[in-house]
Design brief:
CATH class of the largest domain: Alpha Beta
CATH topology of the largest domain: Aminopeptidase
Distance between the termini: 53 Å
Length: 376
């Protein structure tokens, strides 16, 4: 097998890439990764230098892996800034580092996609050896693979990478006929709470619109982008993504987008954008002009649950963090990342840290599960 490195998604044929990745997981599509690059949201200026790896067998593309050379740890949702500080204290450079991830997207999925006929461990070993060689040549400190599926995390662990665990909250569709059918699985107090939150939204004169990506107008995209930007500005930071990114994916993969708009007195007051996968709805971006009672829950969660039930989707992945999701039926699930540290001393120290951290993460997950609102 031969490994080829490219520095832009434009250097690989979109059909060849998508033939391997499929469309069930939207964030590995050529269209998504290329829109990040072409819009300038992901580039050298923003600290994401594309360095994707292709695996060829007799000139045939058999595996692909997104790879970036990172000069910081922003937009990753797996936090290693303390590791970087420890490097600095010892007079060493943690950055740049190699990162295999979907930029700005903490959604689990396959990170190394390959033909079914090839040996996955052989492909991963080939890629890992290539990365180690590049790291020696270019003085790169480490390689990090974020949010792979469990099987892929275990395969990377068998090659010598160290696994880190985290927790997110996902909702699972148990074959509900409608939202009320879901409510019947909750204990009385939480069932009343969810009904009250949905009622309060309507009592404030707010109505919700769910619009499929191809039907979203240019004006609605611009309005959504204003909300998305406000979410960051309220926290004193700049948004990662620009309007050009959203306009591009609206054209190239609009069939996998779902926009929810909240409207009051003919004015749009909030918006949330989700991606539709093969069996999963991925809630990604949200924003509002001003706060309304329970509007965030309705726009970001309950509309998504309605959609999953109507479309028969099995899971709603509403993004990172959010303990408030537990009371609304979102269950704690384990996420994974895999890490290779070139410096043997730091590799040992980090591995010891991750053992202790894993115990704390597992305890947190068990504790969070004890607060789920389902009837016993």
């Amino acid at each position: 097998m031969e490994v080829k490195q490219i520095h832009s998604m434009a250097q690989v044929d979109a059909e060849d890439w998508n033939r391997l990745t499929g469309e069930a997981y939207p964030f590995m599509r050529h269209e998504f990764l290329w829109a990040l690059e072409q819009s300038g949201s992901v580039c050298e200026h923003t600290g994401w230098i594309a360095a994707h790896l292709l695996v060829l067998d007799n000139d045939q593309l058999v595996a692909v892996m997104p790879l970036y050379l990172k000069s910081h740890s922003w937009g990753e949702y797996v936090f290693d800034q303390q590791w970087a500080e420890a490097y600095q204290q010892q007079g060493l450079d943690y950055y740049p580092k190699w990162l295999t991830a979907i930029p700005l997207t903490p959604c689990q999925g396959s990170r190394i996609v390959m033909q079914a006929a090839v040996d996955p461990l052989e492909v991963m070993r080939t890629l890992f050896n290539h990365i180690k060689q590049l790291s020696e040549q270019q003085g790169i400190s480490s390689w990090h693979c974020l949010f792979p599926e469990l099987q892929q995390a275990e395969q990377l662990q068998s090659l010598g990478l160290t696994i880190r665990e985290g927790v997110q909250f996902h909702w699972f569709n148990q074959g509900y006929r409608d939202f009320n059918d879901f409510l019947l699985t909750l204990n009385a107090s939480k069932r009343k709470m969810l009904k009250r939150e949905r009622r309060r939204v309507s009592e404030q004169g707010v109505r919700l619109l769910r619009i499929a990506g191809p039907d979203v107008s240019e004006l609605q995209w611009q309005v959504f982008f204003q909300f998305y930007t406000l979410t960051y500005l309220k926290r004193g930071s700049q948004p990662y993504l620009n309007l050009a990114f959203f306009q591009q994916i609206a054209v190239t993969m609009g069939e996998q987008l779902l926009l929810v708009l909240a409207v009051k007195d003919d004015q749009t007051i909030a918006a949330a954008l989700s991606f539709v996968g093969g069996d999963t709805l991925y809630g990604r971006y949200w924003g509002c002009y001003e706060d309304y009672n329970s509007l965030h829950f309705e726009t970001c969660y309950y509309q998504g649950l309605d959609y999953c039930i109507e479309q028969g989707l099995k899971r709603f992945d509403s993004g990172a963090q959010g303990e408030h999701k537990i009371a609304r039926g979102f269950e704690p699930i384990t996420t994974y990342s895999a890490h290779w540290i070139k410096d043997a001393r730091f590799a040992t120290a980090i591995a010891h840290f991750l053992v202790r951290e894993q115990q704390a993460v597992q305890h947190y997950k068990q504790d969070a599960a004890s607060y789920l609102p389902f009837k016993q």
